[in-house]
Amino acid sequence: MSRPGFVLEVDERTPALLMHEGEGFRLEKLPLGSRVIYPPESLPGLRDLDARIRHALANPLGREPLHELLRPGMRLTIVFDDLSIPLPPMRTPDIRQRIIEQVLELAAAKGVDDVELIAGNALHRRMTPAELKRTVGERVFRSFFPRHLRNHDAEDKANLTEIGQTRHGEVVEINRRAAESDLIVYVNVSLTAMSGGPKSVSVGLASYRSLKHHHNVHTLRHSKSFNDPPNSAMHHSYNRMAGLLDESVNIFQIETTVNNDTFPDYVGFLNKREWEWNLKDQASYLAVKRANDLAPPKQRRQIWHRTAAPYGVTSVTAGDPIQVHEVTTRHVLRQQLTEVDGPADIGIFGLPYICPYNVNSIMNPILVMSLGLGYFFNLYRGQPIVRPGGVAIYYHPVRNEFHPVHHPSYIDFFEEVLAETTDPVAIETKFEEQFATDPWYIHLYRNSYAYHGVHPLYMWYWGAHAMEHLGDVIFVGGNRKTTERMGFRSASTLDDALEMARERVGRSPSINYLHAPPLTMADVR
Amino acid sequence: MNLTLEYHRSPVRYMTTRTATGTSVGGRASGWMAANLSPLRLLNRPEPRLPGAGWTRVRPRLSGICGSDLGLLTGRNSPYLSALISLPFTPGHEVVGDTLDDLPDLPKGTRVVLDPVLGCVPRGLEPCAGCAADQPSRCDHITAGRVSAGMQTGYCADTGGGWSRVFVAHASQLHRVPDTVDDERAVLVEPLACAIHTVRRAPIPDGASVLVVGAGTVGLLTTMALREYTKAGPIYVIARYGHQRELAREAGATEVLASDRAARALRRATGGFLARPERGSEYLLGGVDLAFDCTAGSGLDTALRVVRAGGTVVMSGMPNAGVDLTPLWFRELNLVGAYCSGGHDFPDALALAQSAPLTGYVDAVYPLSRWRDAIGHASAAGRLGSVKVAFDPTKDQ
């Protein structure tokens, strides 16, 4: 039986606590009385996973068993989540590979010949052949790549189709092949409560025309939080779109959840609560930290990005997208939700080396912002862990570095747009159209491995709710110029950051520290 | 006697400064190198003789230090020019001063600015094709006639130059300065005339996008000239220092860019694709219609890389850096030179100097006796927040 989530109140016996800071980590002593929000202990993974997959496909929720939906001559499209989840990437064989192999076996047994596999990467960068192979496995890759295994292309006008408009006037436009298939099998991995369900097809296979209806400042400011779908305007939009899709497209959803075994054994201490570190964990911490600090930056980054998570899969559910997603969300929350008694004046977050958009890449300043003020800030239900007007303190070096191939429009966004304004509404009004329709960005998105031109703006919107909510944002260890460019402040140490925060929250602030990763979602009463 | 800064022949000093300033460390200390190693010396010489009728002595009030002068003192100027000068000479070709002799229509004591080109008229020769076309900067006779070789005053042994108490000039070189133009503005008339000439060297269609590389004196004045005498559309200026950015905007720049992100910013502004070669700088497939290199050649590479196919690059200022000409060939660019001025450029410059935002441009004035400080200051003008450094020979006792 795994122990539930836990809030620790720091007292004089509390050891220094682990804090992620990009491609590094440190132990930090927090002020007495600070509350530390830990996730529930990692849940046990399912045993005999292949059998559980087989069972899910044969006993779906709200749908006939998959083998009964398959017939000769049909068009079958298998769509799978791209490399943005889970984080870090899971050890091979990836759960998507296991599921896709079973779906293909059933399809073959039923004589289905017209099968296509599409990565649901929306406006994310294309996955490289190596990344596709890692996700779907060697056997599937060899059989289908490149003609029948590909990335979704949100700018391939000829291969997009408009399904219709919701009652709110939201255009639903998705991949033509998927839309015209007799059956879409969507293979999902849900790492947070925001993923999966209505989001899968309506976002993963959509175009900018369609995405802009929910990826905008207004929607994100009214998504409190976007990890709490009932209170997320973004998910309300997904739901409307999914409702429209449901009328014209037949979707068989397969969703999975993973536990909190985020880091492999050699850095196993990162998965544990600090006071439970044994001698080996303490020695590992010292050795790994020393080696990590001494490693050249390039090698350090390579090592972190080669790290694969030994996740256990905690659920596999198939069938009707809505019914499946209810089950999935319960499993995610069971693994991540921790009750917290009210927000604090200050919220502290340690930001790790990876976010959904820098897998095998560089975490540039915009991505640091979206990870901190977007993903981590929104890891709440009820209310944020910081009170309105409070201060968020993040740990990250926020280096001014960008991946020139993956993030070309991010460079221009940082240099040009943020030099002019950091106001999300002003940015959206003046720059979104320019970035979204820039032919060079579109060319790179389609032919290179670049995120879509509009993506950095979306990342900025991702933090719009936090920017509106917070009184100040401070990065401990952050590059001063880079943080300033984004409208934030930097501090050398936590003490300095707390001193700076006092201007806004007084001399005796309450503090909440969201101890993640492994991911923790605060259920703030 | 005439107190004068004289540049004399010294192959050893020339090669020493050229070699030393050619390194990255030496380049940063080029001001010190120019001031201490170059073959320049402060001397008392007899006043230069009047070469003939139509000539007058001129007593400089202010004499600017130009980028080409610094190129000379650091040994960076091309040896190509060595055939067009006569040694020893007194540098200084951006001059406002008073005439000391009576000439028809130019009585003694008239405040004048100098058009330094020594074409056929001052040389007492029949006009060559360039001079006949009122383009004396294209004169073919700059090594002939009644004064010795020298493309300009400031490179000619017989005329002297502005970095002295007295030099000689022909009436055709002198332009009366209106009372409304003070000395600080008047000393900028010569570079302003060059800037006007530069923007007239290539046709600029209405609304054309233009890049000015460099925001020193030449870049800033070129920006002003573009705004005044053309109907260019957006003007982008690459500037390195904070004060240059502000002045460029004041001069009429639409947007001021940092050199390290110019290609990306111009791509965003003008469209096109950005290409990243395995070695060397990024370049555009697309880009601005025209670019003006106002950096004495160091920015020419940038200019060639960000002009659209079929576009034009105009070189202003004396070039002293090598460049990869592949874009010129591949993008079928037009490369245009712009040297000094001609036609109506000088009168137009005098008119523009009255209204242009030139206040504060001349912010460091030295006596000749402090020439090492002046050269050091001029070499680091950008870093030190200055635009134009000048000598005031009247300050020397």
From TrEMBL, chain A:
Recorded superkingdom: Bacteria
Location of the LarA-like N-terminal domain: 37-224
InterPro entries xref list: LarA-like, LarA-like_C, LarA-like_N
Pfam families tied to this protein: Lar_N
Protein name: LarA-like N-terminal domain-containing protein
Species annotation: Phytohabitans aurantiacus
TrEMBL record, chain B:
Family annotation (InterPro entries): ADH-like_C (IPR013149), ADH-like_N (IPR013154), GroES-like_sf (IPR011032), NAD(P)-bd_dom_sf (IPR036291), Zn_alcohol_dh (IPR050129)
SUPFAM superfamilies: GroES-like, NAD(P)-binding Rossmann-fold domains
Cofactors, names only: Zn(2+)
Domain of life of the source: Bacteria
Alphabetic keyword roster: Oxidoreductase
Residue ranges of every copy of the Alcohol dehydrogenase-like N-terminal domain listed in the record: 52-179
Domain Alcohol dehydrogenase-like C-terminal per the UniProt entry, residue ranges: 218-354
Signal peptide: none
Name of the featured protein: Alcohol dehydrogenase
Lineage, opening ranks: Bacteria, Bacillati, Actinomycetota, Actinomycetes, Micromonosporales
